[in-house]
Each structure stands twice: as C-alpha cells, then as structure tokens.
Amino acid sequence: MEQSTRPGTGRLADRYGRVATDLRVSLTDRCNLRCSYCMPPEGLPWLPSPDILTDDEVIRLVGVAVRLLGVTEVRFTGGEPLLRPGLTRIVAAVAGLRPRPVLSLTTNGIGLGRLAPGLRDAGLDRVNVSLDTLDAERFARLAYRRRLAEVLAGLAGAAAAGLTPVKINSVLLRGINDDEAPALLRFALDHGYELRFIEQMPLDAQQAWDRSRMVTAAEILDALTAEFALLPDPAERGGAPAETWLVAGSSGPHGGLARVGVIGTVTRPFCGDCDRTRLTADGQVRDCLFARHESDLRTALRGGADDAELARRWQVAMSGKRAGHGIDDPTFLQPARPMSAIGG
Using one digit for the tens of pLDDT, what is the confidence trace for 144-161? Predict the structure, then answer.
C-alpha cells in the first residue's frame, strides 16, 4: 500500500514507505577496462570536464545527504573511482562529516595496492573489487585488457591496508566464465575475501543484454552447492542486495564461517527493500539503477541554491520512485546511460 510522504521530513522517503539511507556516488564515467557487460571495446565518449562535479561540489552534496537527509552509508563508484585525482581528499572530507557515514568503494582494483594505505588513512572503511575470472586469457577476453595481475595485487593491497572485509564482485557470462563459480569461491576462501556473485544486468552501453543468455542466481547456487555445503545465514538481510549463505567448514576473515552472496537483481529482485539513492558524476540524482529519468542538482548547486533547497530537491527526486525496476515488464527499456555513467 502506498504511504503519503512529503519533502521536508529530513529523510529520502518515497510513496511506498522506503527510506534511502545508502548513497552511491559516481566520481567519474571513465574506466581503464572495457568489460563487455558494461561498455564496448572502443570505449565511450566521456562526459565533458565542465559537466563533472568538482571535488568541493561532491563533498557539499554528500554533506547535504548525510547531515540533512539521513544517509548513513556512502559508496564511491565510477566508472573507475581510482581514476579520480581528488579521491583521497573527498574520502577524508566525507569521513569528517558528523554523523560519520560508513564509507566504501567499488573498484576494478587496478592501482588499489598503491592507493589503499592512503585511502584507509583518509577514512575509507572497506572496498568491493570486481573480479570475474582467475584466468588471464579469459580476463583479456572479458575486459579487453591484460591486467589481471594488477587486480589481484589490488585485492592483496586492500587487505594489507585493513580495508576489510575485502569483498569481490563477480559477474558470470555464459560461454566465457560460467564454469568458474566454485573456483572463485575457493579463491575467496583461501584469501579471506567475501565473494558476491551478481547477475548480469541490462546496463551495457551496447544494449545487447539478453535474458536468455544471463547466468541466473539459481544456476550460480547450483554450481556452488555441487562443491560446497551452504548453510542459511542467520544475519538479517535488511536492505542489502545480496542473499548470503555460510560456507560449511570454512573460516571467515573475522571468525566464524565465511559468507558467500548472490545478488539476483533480475530473477530475485529486492526492490521492496531498496534503500539506495544515486548521484552521478555530473550531479544528477537517480532514484533507481534502472531509472530512465534523472533529477538535476548540479544546476541548482551552481546557481546558488542553499543546502536546504538542495535537500528539498533531492527529496522530491526520490519521492516518485517506482515500486520496482520493471525488468519483467514487456515495456521495459534499458536506461539511456550505461553502468559506467550511472555508478553501481
């Protein structure tokens, strides 16, 4: 049942009663990989530099979200956020907000080994690193770059710096790496990482996504349970996108059994518990990863709007959020922007 809500209540609520407390901030649309489920091998036209929020503008908008709108978690994304020159400064400024949000970063891991200690010192709490294969040739086929060793070094560097738990995000593509689920879990268990599989989503720039070729959550679980005993996770899921299981006979990074998760965005949607709001690198609010509309904060920000007005506009942007992403609807259309320009 719909619930009435209005701007001005100090939170990002929609008409279904969901409240966004998790902010995903895209810091750039640029990336140094070309993962086939995200962008074409030749890359994409990047956003013009004047359109990108400055470091101070990012810090101010995140501050509005945290101080005035009840956001408690901030995740920096891209493109590839490690390519943002001011990343460490942004992290330090956001870590200095009160109340302090939990800070995380989603990255492909290239350069993370070098940057991890400074990011940790700045206040970053943890990282998610994308790793779809352990095979160098498959990596090159998937990402069109031969940089697997750098990603693995980034994972190790993050763990050494204390950005724990280090989480791995893996997407399986049929006919390429769909046989690697057990190997990826074994790798994560051996190194003390937490693994999350993510169903391939209709967010590629080529708009070539085909549901019939997607490796589903059920298939991933079948592959894992063929080699591992998975136990129900007693921890409350809340608004987390991943369904998680405990791996029998394993040892987690902080004691107890290790966890493995599956994010079934397409076949096991969790829209009813969604608690996320998104800010693109060019200052647009997105109320859903799959939204086909955006709300412009950058123009108001640069036009002199005060924090209260920015907060009000953000609330209006989130109040009209749809009940679900609608991927199963015959009228569903992919967002005009691909994942690299939206941020995960």
Answer: 999 999 999 999 999 999
Q: What is the pTM assigned to this prediction? A: 0.92
Token couple for 75? 């995740």
Domains parsed from the chain with CATH numbers? 12-342 (3.20.20.70)
- Return the percent helix, strand and coil in the chain, to nearest 5: 30, 15, 50
Give 137's contacts (C-beta < 8 A, 6+ positions apart): none
Specify the long-range contacts of residues 266-270, CB closer than 8 Å, at least 24 apart. 266/199, 266/200, 266/201, 266/202, 266/211, 266/214, 266/216, 266/327, 267/199, 267/216, 267/217, 267/218, 268/217, 268/243, 269/324, 269/325, 269/327, 270/239, 270/241
At 210-241, the pLDDT tens digits run: 777 789 999 999 999 999 999 999 998 888 89
